[in-house]
Amino acid sequence: MRKILLAISTLFIISNLSAQEIKNIIFLIGDGMGLASASMMQVENNYDPTIFDSADNIALQKTYSMDNRVTDSAASGTALATGYKTNNTYLGVLADGTPVESLMEVAKREGKRTGIVVTTYLQHATPAAFYAHINSRHEYLAITEQLVGSNLDIAIGGGMAFFEERYKENIEETLKNNGFTLAKSLDEVASIEPNKRVLALLADKEIENRSGYLANATREALRLLDNEEGFALMVEGSLIDGMGHANDAKAQQGEMRDFMEAIEVAVDFAKHHPDTLVVVTGDHETGGLSIVSCDADFCLSEQGVEYRWTTKGHSGTMLPIYLYGTAAENINGIMENAELGAKLKELISK
After folding, report:
1. In sequence order, what are the residues at sequence separation of 6 or more whose Cβ sits closer than 8 angstroms to the Cβ of residue 139?
2. 127 neighbors 236 (Cβ within 8 angstroms)
3. What's residue 18's pLDDT?
4. What pTM does this model have?
5. Pairwise pLDDT comparison (67 vs 300), residue with the higher score
6. CB 225 within 8 A of CB 276
7. Which residue, among 84, 259, 117, has the nearest Cα to 186 in the 3D structure?
8. I need a surface site. Which of 36, 236, 251, 297 has the fewest CB within 10 A?
9. Does the annotation count 73 as an active-site position?
């Protein structure tokens, strides 16, 4: 593994991409979501079709980091955001500390608008991988400063506690000086005109009342971002991961439902904007979830199923990639997580 080149993206040639221009990319990441989590939702839906079943194409990604066969969210988030593998805990930098450009930075260079929507705090590992460049995911105040200085146009999630610690009573003034309008609720976000820059801090850390939140926040972000030049939006179902760490299948189902509702919003947008690619995947699998028969006697007509967990941590299994919309048919096979990130950067720059 140590012989792997830092820039995985340079090892792969992007070919056979759709001739139609991709103006918009909506990248939805289920933190901790593996194939078993998606399968669990099929079981819970009595095998009626879910949003995963309607994907136009499916691929697989490998998730290991540069220094560990089992990744954390920082290294995997960096791979997905930048097209480069790095060490665990590193954000937006290579293993030697060199900063690397993210999907959002490429999109902004191309004249597009950019945004992130999460259910956790905006300084958490996965969202931070799309705007921060630092070798420790735990430097929350420094990451907060990088968020304020970033080129994001829309950021919706939690994280007010870190702003209060860093900027005291000067939060609104600091954001205004950096071109952001501060919003403290989704209702406030809904009142803001398109093409404004918005930083919505809706909780001290995690969003507490999450039922329906992610779909509504995604819908608002799309309203604010939609423009003639296009945009890149990352949406994270952040707390699928936490319920995997807790080995709580029922709670993870709730987080998955909220995430799936956000996917439905994105796919519906793509149906009405045929220059849009929607990409859905995880950053890693959490909990080692399996779906097993309640009885070993398969002569029975129905043994029932149980959800069993094998770890309180992450696992190293491959993850599904669900693709919808423009060029969905051209992302195929088994790939590195960094290859997927590199392809998305290439597509947004065409």
Report:
1. none
2. yes
3. 41
4. 0.94
5. 67
6. no
7. 117
8. 297
9. yes
Q: Quick check: is 31 in a domain?
A: yes
The CA-CA-CA angle for residues 335, 336, 340, to 5°, reads 80
2 located within any domain: no
- Catalytic residue, candidates 37, 65, 73, 238: 73
Domain CATH number, residue 211? 3.40.720.10
pLDDT, tens digit (0-9, with 9 covering 90-100), for 136-175: 999 999 999 999 999 999 999 999 999 999 999 999 999 9
Q: Is the Cβ–Cβ distance between 84 and 6 less than 8 Å? A: yes
Residue 15 lies in a domain: no
Distance (Å, rounded) from C-alpha 70 to C-alpha 1? Answer: 12
What's the domain range around 151? 20-290+310-348
Q: Which conformational region is residue 32 in: left (phi greater than 0), alpha (psi within -120 to 50 degrees), or beta?
A: left
Is residue 213 within 8 A of residue 186, CB to CB? The reply is: yes
276-304, pLDDT tens digit by residue? 999 999 999 999 999 999 888 777 788 88
User: Which residue stretches of the chain are H helix?
Assistant: 35-44, 73-82, 103-109, 125-128, 140-148, 160-167, 171-177, 186-190, 213-225, 240-245, 249-272, 337-348
Please, are residues 74 and 89 in contact by the beta-carbon 8 Å criterion? yes
pLDDT tens digits, one per residue of 97-124? 999 999 999 999 999 999 999 999 999 9
The bridge status of strand 57-62 relative to strand 319-325 is: antiparallel
Residue 274 lies in a domain: yes
> What pLDDT is attached to residue 320?
98
Number of domains in the chain: 1
Determine the pLDDT at residue 20.
65
How much is the pLDDT for 302?
83
